[in-house]
Specification:
The protein has 306 residues and is of the alpha/beta class. It contains 11 helices and 12 strands.
């Protein structure tokens, strides 16, 4: 089944060329099926790039997915055109009376700041609180995961001596968990962050558990109570060239940056990076969408009057 996106969303043309099954809104609205409603709060500066990455993974499942894109009202992106934001993005006041099967909150390049100093922190806290009753299952990415763990459970983030940057091997801790259905015992995923959460803080919180971790990158996936929240510290949604783009950007800016770990064959930055996390990225998002959103959301959660 397809993912429903606006006809003129830039991601539409890209995904169509990749044979990701997408459907025009007009056709989707005539089908006698309740689509899975997913809200994406996109906090990344390059919103078109991030929305395309997420839609690619959400569209590679048998489910019909209806996407709503949201931005913060208290901070305006400087890296995405206002035309795009006004045309395709909602703010919290536009959707606060709605309910969603699932919500994805992206990362943001603001890890060096205390949470309370982020311009949109009060608004984000309002959204996190609203999600308790209006979202059935939430998926938080990188800084979004750290922010949500802090808001809901008081878990702290800690600065790293050097940026964690590259492709790292991870172990599946709970091999019977449906989030890892079809996974190998070990798998790879990208990281790009300056801060970390620590396992000793996670295990002190009733209801939280570390589902997957890396000996080099630390905690990767944390599950919340009743599997209605997942906190993912890396970026399995990244494209092949995303880390390379970050690396070259920082080099050009004269910033101290090391080549991404485990990314370039033979650590040769002149060789195209190997794409070795795509299969597990598709499994991760497909399993979340199927087992924890589609199969578990009560029908009357979204349609309370039926």
């Amino acid at each position: 089944m397809p993912i429903k996106v606006p006809n003129d969303l830039p991601a539409h043309k890209i995904l169509d060329a990749e044979n990701i099954f997408i459907m025009h809104g007009s056709r989707a609205d005539t089908q006698d099926i309740r689509p899975v409603r997913i809200l994406i709060l996109n906090l990344m500066p390059k919103k078109i790039e991030t929305e395309t990455q997420l839609l690619r993974l959400l569209g590679n499942t048998p489910l019909q997915v209806d996407i709503e894109l949201m931005q913060t009202a208290s901070y305006t992106s400087k890296n995405t055109s206002q035309e795009h934001l006004l045309k395709f993005y909602k703010v919290f006041d536009d959707i606060k009376d709605q309910k969603f099967d699932g919500m994805i909150v992206t990362g943001a390049p603001i890890e060096h700041m205390p949470f309370e100093e982020v311009d949109y922190w009060p608004e984000l806290c309002k959204i996190f609180e609203w999600a308790k009753t209006n979202v059935f299952c939430s998926y938080f990415i990188c800084w979004g995961a750290q922010a949500a763990l802090n808001y809901y459970y008081g878990v702290s983030k800690y600065p790293l001596e050097h940026k964690l940057f590259g492709i790292y091997e991870h172990d599946v801790r709970d091999k019977g968990h449906y989030l890892f259905y079809g996974f190998d015992d070990t798998y790879h995923a990208p990281h790009s962050r300056h801060t970390e959460i620590r396992e000793e803080d996670i295990v002190r919180v009733p209801g939280l558990r570390v589902l997957s971790a890396s000996k080099d990158a630390g905690v990767y996936i944390v599950g919340g109570p009743d599997d209605r929240q997942f906190f993912v510290t890396g970026h399995s949604e990244y494209d092949r060239g995303t880390l390379e783009g970050e690396y070259k950007r920082d080099l050009a800016a004269g910033m101290p940056i090391r080549p991404p770990v485990g990314y370039y064959p033979g650590d040769d930055t002149n060789v195209a990076p190997t794409f070795r996390w795509r299969a597990h990225a598709n499994l991760l998002y497909g399993n979340w969408l199927n087992y924890f959103v589609y199969q578990r959301t009560p029908y009357d959660f979204i349609q309370p009057n039926l």
